[in-house]
Amino acid sequence: MKLFAKSAVLAFLLVLFNAHTGYSQEEAPVKNFEYSIDVDHLKTDEQAQAIANQVNAIEGVENCSLVLIEYKLVFHTTNHAIENTDVLAAVKEVVLRNNAQIVKINRKEE
User: Are the C-beta atoms of residues 30 and 80 closer than 8 Å to each other?
Assistant: First the structure.
């Protein structure tokens, strides 16, 4: 009987410890990134503006610009936005929905 009591106490302590440590994890520090995406199949200023406006509307995206002559989409985001919103998937969807194509993605930590 004593063995069972000790096992029960140890099991209870283990559950208590896991519950406490499971909720006390710290959030990663914020890192800022600049994405520069080379885009192809841009034909008009209206198409470029529509892409820039839609990407800028994505949660976690800041300072989005797309220059038609350079075929380059540039925006800023954070590691938290990338994890919470999946910013890159949303940006890719916007580009493809507007009949453009992504050629290359560059990421630079600021």
Answer: yes
Angle between helices 87-97 and 45-56 (to 10 degrees): 160
Please tell me the pTM assigned to this model. 0.73
How many angstroms separate the CA atoms of 59 and 94, rounded?
A: 13
DSSP at 16: H
Q: Which two tokens stand for residue 49?
A: 């503006």
pLDDT in tens, 71-101: 999 999 999 888 888 899 999 999 999 999 9
Q: What would the DSSP string read from start to end of 41-84?
A: ----HHHHHHHHHHHHTSTT-EEEEEETTTTEEEEEEEHHHHHH
**CB-count exposure of residue 42 (10 Å: 0-12, 13-18, 19+):** buried
